[in-house]
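U., I forgot to send this yesterday:
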Amino acid sequence: MSGRVQSVNMDQKGKGLRIEGARDFGWGESLAVGKRRPLSLPAAFTLALAAMLASVLPLNAQSDAGLQPGSGTVSTQRPQILQQVGIDQHLNEQLPLDLHFRDETGKDVRLGEFFSQRPVIVSLVYYRCPMLCGEVLNGLTSAISVVSFDLGKDYDIVTVSIDPRETPADAAKMKQVYLRRYNRHADASSEQGWHFLTGSEDQIKKLAAAVGFRYVYDPRINQYAHASAIEVATPEGRISQYYYGIEYSPKDLRLGLIQASKNRIGNLADAFVLYCYHYDPATGHYGATIMRILRLAGIATVLLLGGFIFTMVRRDVRSGRLDSGRAA
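Result:
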């Protein structure tokens, strides 16, 4: 049978394989183990191709089997506990200023004591958090160290623990750490301007509900699952802006404090920038308002043209007077 393998047999001594009917392929009469008979180029190529197919086909079969229904799929859904975590924006909502907490000295304080004539940055964390809360406070400290407003003079910060088990001693330790990291005018006013609070579970939950801060306790790992953000509130205690993540733009934070203060802090240039920039609640950033910029550009163009026309007319009038004087 030309060009086909008729049979594959083991030799009598068990030393090798005898492939009959393989002469037309150029393999020779046998491929006995231990023989050093050289193979032709077509034979070597054919053997290599057969070995590759033998190794690939089982892998393909396994891959195809893994794609079959019921073979096990990777879930893309969030864990059930994380579905309870998030931030719901409650812009312009009044914070419950009658809630009571304990400050870092253990003194019972009312939340409204920290809201008077200055805007307030609110941060909900817990002091024994192994990672995320520290990053939130680090990002906040870095941002306010750049902002050209003074903590305790131009604005206040209220940091509240969401863990009712934490104590004023925990709050005092955290206050010392972050006041040392605050690089801008760290004095008595800044110490009095950043408040670290602890409280009972019912008071914490009421504040978190007003802010829209959803969190959940995971007893398996003895930790809280929560989102990362800070909020800016007006002196009257109404939520003005949300800033997400663990790093906060000093420019956005500065504009947010100015807007929350109703221009009580800042200068004329800041007021001009606020006119051209608008806070976007979806992104937590300030962006340029195109129509307002175009309106200002139009006004500036009219003023420039008006000034140019006035100057040219005045020059022509003066030239006419000089010419008439010379003629006389």
